[in-house]
Design brief:
Number of strands: 0
Largest sheet: none
Distance between the termini: 39 Å
Order of helices and strands: HHHHHHHHHHHHHHHHH
CATH superfamily of the largest domain: MetI-like
C-alpha cells in the first residue's frame, strides 16, 4: 500500500510539473537527459540481465538470466586476484587523485590570487595545458617521461644526477605503487586545472572590499585565506569535490592508453571503468552482459558516494531559508 501511495503521489506531482510553466523551460534539458542518460542506463540495466556476448544481439538479447551476471562479477571480485586488484586500484586512484585535484586546484587559485595579474595569468595558462592537450598527445608525453629505458626523461634525469645506475621501470617493476603513482600523477594534473578554473572564478567574484578591509586591519595572506576566501568558497569546494569524485569513478581514457602501451601494469593500472570497457570490447570473449552488470553496480556505488559526499560536506546546512519574503 505504501509503495502504491508513493507511486501515485509521484505520478501526480509529475503531471503537475508537466502542466506548469517550468516544464516548458526545462523541456530541452530534460530531453537531452532522457536521450543521453536515462535511456542508456535503462539499456545497460536490461543488458545486465542477459547473456549478451560478442554483440550477438539476435542470439542473446532476448534471453533473460536473472542475476547471474551480478553474481559472476561479485564472485570474481572476491575470488579473482586480477578483479580484486581492479577494485583496490579504483579505491587508491580515486581517493588520492581526488585530494590532488581539489587541494591542488584550490591551492593554485589562492596562490595566484596573491600575485600580480600578469604572473597569475601566465601560471594559470601553464596549468591549463594538460586540459587543452589532446588525450593521445598528453598520454604520449608522459609515456616518454616515465619510459623504462634511457630515453625516458625521468630515468635520464635520475641517471644524470647519479641517483640510479640503471633505468627503473616504475609502472611495471614497482608494483603496485609505481603503477598507481603514474596514473594518479597523469590524471591529477588534468583535474587540478579544472579545480583551478572554478576556484579562480569564485575568488574573483568575492567583493574586493573584504580583502582591502582585511589588509587595512593588518591581516596576512594566510589570515585572509582562512577567514575570508575559504569560508566563501564552501559551495565551490563542495561542487568540485563531488564533480571530481564522480568523474574519477568513470574516467579511463588516459589510463587506457598507458596500459595499452605497456607503461603501466595491467592489473594495478586498471580501474573499475576501464575494466568495464575491456570486458565489453577488448577481451577475447566480449562479455557485454557482465560488463553491463559491472557498469550498473558502478552507477549505484557512484550515486551512493555522491550522496555521502554531499552529506559529509554539509550540503543540507548550506541550504538556508531566505531572509524575509522574496
Amino acid at each position: 500500500m505504501k509503495l502504491n501511495s508513493f507511486l501515485n503521489n509521484a505520478l501526480h506531482e509529475f503531471k503537475r510539473f508537466l502542466r506548469s510553466n517550468a516544464s516548458k523551460f526545462l523541456a530541452p534539458a530534460l530531453f537531452l537527459v532522457i536521450i543521453f542518460y536515462i535511456i542508456p542506463i535503462a539499456v545497460s540495466v536490461y543488458m545486465s540481465f542477459t547473456p549478451l556476448r560478442n554483440w550477438n544481439i539476435d542470439k542473446y538479447a532476448g534471453r533473460f538470466i536473472g542475476w547471474e551476471n551480478y553474481e559472476r562479477f561479485l564472485y570474481m571480485l572476491t575470488r579473482d586476484p586480477s578483479v580484486k586488484a581492479v577494485f583496490l586500484t579504483t579505491v587508491v586512484f580515486v581517493a588520492i587523485t581526488l585530494m590532488v585535484n581539489v587541494l591542488g586546484g584550490l591551492g593554485l587559485a589562492i596562490a595566484t590570487f596573491f600575485v600580480n595579474e600578469k604572473a597569475a595569468s601566465g601560471s594559470q595558462l601553464l596549468w591549463l595545458l594538460p586540459r587543452m592537450t589532446p588525450v593521445a598527445v598528453y598520454s604520449l608525453i608522459w609515456y616518454y617521461f616515465f619510459h623504462p629505458s634511457t630515453i625516458g626523461t625521468l630515468n635520464s634525469i635520475l641517471s644524470y644526477i647519479g641517483l640510479i645506475d640503471k633505468p627503473i621501470d616504475l609502472g611495471q617493476g614497482i608494483i603496485p605503487w609505481g603503477a598507481w603513482t603514474i596514473i594518479v600523477f597523469v590524471n591529477g594534473l588534468v583535474g587540478v586545472s579544472y579545480g583551478m578554473i572554478v576556484f579562480t572564478s569564485a575568488i574573483n567574484s568575492i567583493p574586493k572590499e573584504l580583502v582591502i578591509a582585511a589588509r587595512v586591519d593588518g591581516a596576512t595572506n594566510w589570515q585572509i585565506t582562512r577567514t575570508i576566501l575559504i569560508p566563501l568558497l564552501r559551495w565551490h569546494i563542495l561542487y568540485v569535490t563531488t564533480w571530481q569524485l564522480l568523474s574519477l569513478l568513470t574516467t579511463y581514457d588516459h589510463i587506457f592508453l598507458l596500459v595499452k602501451w605497456g607503461l603501466v601494469n595491467r592489473d594495478y593500472g586498471t580501474t573499475w571503468s576501464l575494466y568495464i570497457y575491456n570486458t565489453a570490447f577488448l577481451t577475447g570473449l566480449q562479455d557485454q552482459g557482465l560488463a553491463a552488470a559491472a557498469g550498473v553496480l558502478l552507477v549505484i556505488v557512484s550515486s551512493i558516494l555522491g550522496v555521502l559526499t554531499l552529506k559529509l560536506m554539509g550540503f543540507s546546512k548550506m541550504i538556508k531559508p531566505p531572509r524575509g519574503d522574496i
